[in-house]
Amino acid sequence: MSSSAANVAGTESGAAFCASVEDALKNGRPDSVPDEELQRVLSAAVRLYSAKSEDRALAPFGEQPVNATEAVTAICAIMRAADLNFFDLQMWYRRGERE
User: Which residue, 6, 68, 78, 90, has fewest beta-carbon neighbours within 10 Å?
Assistant: First the structure.
């Protein structure tokens, strides 16, 4: 598969995932998206965001921002999974201000 064909396939599958999430949330059925699929997508998105924002400013959310509760819920879960504490977070948070 060529690079451009892979990009199109990835974009289509990403759009399909987002559509299924929007549908699940709109209908009050978040469990209709399998946990394993969510974990796989979240992990890939975090790794890609980290790589792409390494040397440039990149807003984490586009046209579909999250609210404070959604952000903090995800942040706390990611911190626990990565075995980070608030001191660790403070060191990294300040890093962006100096760059």
Answer: 68
